[in-house]
Design brief:
The structure holds 2 protein chains of 2 kinds. By secondary structure, chain A is an all-alpha fold. Chain A has helices at 3-35, 38-46, 48-81, 87-99, 102-112, 116-127, 129-154, 159-176, 180-191, 199-224, 227-235, 240-251, 253-269, 272-277, 288-297, 301-329. Chain B has a 6-stranded mixed beta sheet, with helices on both faces. In chain B, strands 2-1-4-5 form a 4-stranded antiparallel beta sheet, covered by helices on one side. The radius of gyration of chain B is 17 Å and the shape is globular. The chains are: A mainly alpha, B alpha/beta.
């Protein structure tokens, strides 16, 4: 047997084995397409309920992605670079949402908000949201901005230490002189809401699962980056935070983009926990996956398929966007 | 002067106890020893990158044992060069100066002078991905010297290079030695490097540092 022939046979065998799966995916998409038409899609887009679901899906997935990365970058770094007592337990805990049946996560979240601490959080969200946003969130964000400006233009070194006093100052100014009470009232009526069976429950249900995948991805990312570069940065005069921010985070950029992509895609497809924890109320907690189920359950197969295809299209577009953006921002 | 007194390092099963050595100011010290005997650990301890169990490290009689790495004023070239993948060669040479808030014009001048001395002016806008082993080591050396430290630690800087590149980089290191404004501790397992570069030679054998002259 010639070498070329052996090669060809080897690759043919692998292609046959692996190709089955690719064909299955293609066949499913083709079947979906054959059962629906642009007319059905158009009809689905005309529905106020479905338009709401599209909007809520896009917004909740975006927020979930941000929240997941917010947690996954530090946690992934800790799991990758440090040793601490109980690390094995934390490591296992992070995998729990991945292996747990989605329905169980929904039930667990529902039960959590029936416990006294859960009820307290719900109460605060429902009645003190305006206060939290006006006097804590907005001053904190403004303080971060001000300190960064101070560093940029006044050469101020201790940015982190400046943030709390500036935030408190802004909060006091808002409360005494500025539009504090007015903001408080408006933000309260706009964002004050309970959690269970409301929009926050959608985001929480999505984050509970997506975040686990983001943490895994970030951990692997940091595992693959040598700690050496960060160490050299320290010898060059960086603080720990500077070394992390200026050297490690840029090197981890691709990993961050994939963690974000995975978190986003997971949250778009999330269904079980949302159904239990957020319900399937039209114009309130209905996301695209809920739409598919609602339409399907009343026998409107065409509509369910149209929305499914819409999800496929949106997902592919976002994945492509993130990939291109990620490749441009990352390193060769 | 780089001085280590009675240094003990411990990590898991690894133990290095009672290490002492001294490199006089402006001299070029070479520390030899087999792979895995703890040479790198000693360098890391001096640079402040490895916690030490006991002992003292002083630079010109200044006790730096508990200082953060950035406050020690030591240039460090790790074995694998460890360049910053996302930065250009220019960024590497400017990094430490930018951290110190140096003027842009001064940074530009210093980077150009350093690049010229290292023979890497044509690489300033390249990223590490395409650099050869020798070029990467030059950038790592330039990065370590960019903020004009008084002390320089080199961890087997020549071991991964081919014969010819090694020769030209060796000439650079001889240049560093001739200037006499940095005190160097160079770790290697090659006696050729030690022959050509060392003012003082040490050998790490069975956890003990022996001065060889």
């Amino acid at each position: 047997m010639t070498a070329a022939g052996a090669n060809a046979r080897f690759y043919l065998a692998l292609s046959l084995l692996g190709g089955v799966y690719v064909v299955l995916i293609l066949a499913m998409l083709v079947a979906d397409l054959s059962f629906t038409s642009p007319g059905h899609l158009w009809e689905a887009l005309q529905s106020r309920d479905i338009r709401y679901a599209i909007r809520l899906s896009l917004i909740s997935c975006f927020v979930t992605t941000i929240l997941s990365l917010w947690v996954a970058v530090p946690l992934g770094y800790l799991l990758s670079r440090t040793r601490f007592p109980g690390k094995a337990i934390v490591d296992t805990m992070v995998d729990v949402p991945i292996v747990l049946p989605p329905l169980v996560i929904g039930i667990s979240l529902l039960i959590l908000f029936q416990t006294p601490p859960g009820k307290l959080i719900e109460e605060i969200m429902a009645t003190r949201m305006g206060f939290l946003l006006t006097y804590i969130v907005i001053p904190s964000i403004a303080a971060v901005g001000v300190s960064l400006l101070l560093r940029q233009f006044a050469g101020c070194k201790y940015v982190l230490r400046l943030i709390p006093p500036i935030a408190i100052l802004i909060a006091i100014v808002l409360a005494l002189m500025g539009p504090g009470p007015w903001l408080n009232q408006n933000l309260q009526s706009r964002f004050g809401t309970r959690i269970t069976f409301q929009i926050p429950s959608v985001i929480l249900a999505q984050t509970a699962v997506s975040c686990a995948f983001a943490v895994r991805t970030m951990r692997v990312t940091f595992d693959q980056i040598s700690p050496r570069t960060e160490q050299v940065a320290l010898t060059l005069g960086c603080t720990r935070f500077q070394a992390f921010w200026m050297v490690t985070i840029p090197e981890a950029w691709r990993g961050i983009v994939s963690a974000g992509t995975i978190a986003w895609a997971r949250s778009l497809g999330e269904f079980g926990p949302i159904l239990i924890f957020a319900g399937a109320t039209r114009m309130r907690t209905e996301v695209l996956s809920t739409t598919v189920w609602l339409e399907f359950s009343v026998g409107k197969l065409e509509s369910a398929l149209a929305v499914s295809l819409l999800m496929v299209v949106v997902a592919v577009i976002i994945l492509l966007l993130m990939r291109t953006f990620g490749l441009r921002g990352g390193v060769a | 002067m780089i001085q280590i007194i009675d240094l003990t390092l411990r990590q898991g099963a690894f133990l290095l106890a009672g290490v002492s050595l001294e490199v006089p100011s402006g001299q070029y010290g070479v520390l030899m020893g087999k792979t895995g005997c703890g040479k790198t650990s000693i360098l890391e301890a001096i640079a402040g990158l490895r916690p030490i169990a006991s002992g003292t490290i002083t630079l010109n009689d200044r006790n730096i044992t508990r200082l953060a790495p950035g406050e020690r004023g030591i240039g460090y070239v790790p074995q694998d060069a460890a360049l910053f993948r996302t930065m250009t060669v220019y960024n590497h040479l400017a990094f430490a100066l930018e951290l110190r808030g140096t003027d842009r014009a001064i940074i530009d001048n210093r980077v150009m002078a350093l690049a010229e001395w290292l023979g890497i002016e044509h690489l300033l806008h390249r990223r590490p991905a395409g650099l050869s082993g020798g070029e990467a080591q030059r950038v790592a050396l330039g990065r370590a010297l960019s903020f004009r430290p008084k002390y320089l630690l080199l961890d087997e800087p020549l071991s991964s290079l081919d014969e010819e590149t090694r020769g030209s980089l060796m000439d650079l290191l001889i240049g560093v030695r001739e200037k006499r404004d940095v005190t160097v501790l160079h770790v290697t397992h090659s006696s050729v490097e030690a022959e050509r570069l060392a003012d003082v030679r040490f050998r790490l054998v069975h956890g003990e540092v022996i001065q060889e002259g």
